[in-house]
Amino acid sequence: MVTVAAPPPRYVAYERVSTARQGRSGLGLEAQRRAIEAFATARGAVVAGRFTEVESGRKADRPELLRALELARLTGATMVIARLDRLSRNAAFLLTLRDSGVRFLAVDMPEANDLTVGIMALVAQQEREAISRRTKEALAAAKARGVKLGNPNGASALRRAGDNGSALRKLVTANADRFAQDLAPVVADLRSEGHVTLRALARALDDRGILTRRGGRWHVSNVRSLLRRLEVRRF
């Protein structure tokens, strides 16, 4: 009797990076690919397809995720992601994954199943609502204390001010210090969660919906400035 060897498992890889710049540079993407490739090799599997999403984790619309799920469904493959924990706060992703009917594996949590993901989705939704509520309450409290969030006049106001703009510079510095003080507990919380690099902190602040003092997005440069201010003022 001839024994026919079973075909190797087939995987469809799904990877995600937060920004177009990360997509172009490969930042974060290379580590995900190495993790998935090593996982597939260890299990004797073949990576039959690879899909990369370049967008914010907050977005519910993920065309590459849907394409990955469709290929896995049509071929009977298992969808593999590098890290479920990085996506565990995104309820839309988790619910899409749970309801797809496609088998999936996470390299960092291979024991995860539909029940695990369903629970994570509920926790993710509650956590996002709690973060939004805490952020709004913190900003409202800061406004009530008279903190000026942002500097709409900028450098032009300094040029127009008398005394070489000394008084206005002091006001701008005071506002920046108070803004940093308001964010001190948020930064401490993010660091305790493992967001310790400048880039990780910037991404986490954006994910929480927290704007910079000028109402923009966070980057390495303004996170560095914030941390320097926190260190100098020792909040």
Summarize this structure briefly.
By secondary structure, this protein is α/β, with parallel strands linked by helices. 56% of the residues lie in helices and 10% in strands.
What can you tell me about this protein's structure?
The chain contains 9 helices and 4 strands, in the order E-H-H-E-H-E-H-E-H-H-H-H-H. It is α/β, with parallel strands linked by helices. Helix 4 packs antiparallel against helix 5 (114-144). It is elongated, with a radius of gyration of 23 Å. Mean pLDDT is 77; it is low at 20-27.
Beta-strand level of the residues, as a percent range?
5-15%
Which H/E pattern describes the elements? EHHEHEHEHHHHH
- Report the CATH superfamily of the largest domain: Resolvase, N-terminal catalytic domain
Q: Quickly give the CATH architecture of the largest domain.
A: 3-Layer(aba) Sandwich
Strand adjacency order, main sheet: 2-1-3-4
Runs in which pLDDT lies below 50 for 5 or more consecutive residues are 20-27
Radius of gyration: 23 Å
- Using the coordinates above, name the CATH class of the largest domain: Alpha Beta
Could you estimate the helical fraction of the residues in percent?
Answer: 55-70%
Structural shape: elongated
- Number-wise, the strands total 4
Question: What separation lies between the terminal Cα atoms?
Answer: 76 Å
Q: What is the domain tally?
A: 2
Number of helices, where a helix is a run of at least 4 consecutive DSSP H or I residues: 9
